[in-house]
């Protein structure tokens, strides 16, 4: 099947399984209007994260990479009463758009949005004694190996850790591709393959966002 059909199939599934949603659609529209890059998860992927967080029964969620808060909103809606998403965003202008989107969606009180480099903010969460049930890593791919290590420090045993964009149109197996994001993804897989505290797999995905993939795993006790 041609690559151009992937979007059509996503549209078909979306017609069947997604409803019109003013807050989610409005967030994407606000992101576009503010000039944010269109690198949020797709609607079906957002719902995938939502369903996974519900299956995991997550009460405390960590997201690394907020952008305009589209995936944050899907995750916030998965929370039970009293649950919380902590989301980390480097760029103040992205965070500003996200704050507005999350407020407009009525989930601002469920979201703790922190601005700064994730590698500076993660030790703060550790010092605060945070422990998460579900971690979604979707920021600068160069640091994914380090984010995995932080996720394992901050997540409880049995938690879910999911990492976006780990296939990169297949570039991870193209030896000629030495771009920082692809090299970062390879370092992530090297770290994951050596990691005894994370039982993981990765799945390739196609769809409205092209060819990419998620890595997903469960946090194990240190051995
Ligand atoms: N998760 C979002 C969604 O699906 O709606 C998309 C996140 S986007 C792919 C990545 C975001 O990570 C960008 O907004 C970018 O500014 C942010 N980012 C990049 N480097 C970062 C860093 N070192 N620390 C925190 N955020 C970072």
UniProtKB/TrEMBL annotation:
A Pfam family recorded for this sequence: Methyltransf_3
Q: Matching PROSITE patterns, A to Z? A: SAM_OMT_I
Q: Which CDD domains match?
A: AdoMet_MTases
Keywords from UniProt, A to Z, are: Methyltransferase, S-adenosyl-L-methionine, Transferase
GO BP annotations of the record are: methylation
Sorted alphabetically, which InterPro entries does this protein's record hold? Cation-dep_OMT, SAM-dependent_MTases_sf, SAM_O-MeTrfase
Membrane-spanning residues where?
Answer: none
Gene3D superfamilies assigned: Vaccinia Virus protein VP39 (3.40.50.150)
Q: Name one GO molecular function term.
A: S-adenosylmethionine-dependent methyltransferase activity
Q: What is the name attached to this protein's record?
A: Methyltransferase
Species: Rhodoblastus sphagnicola
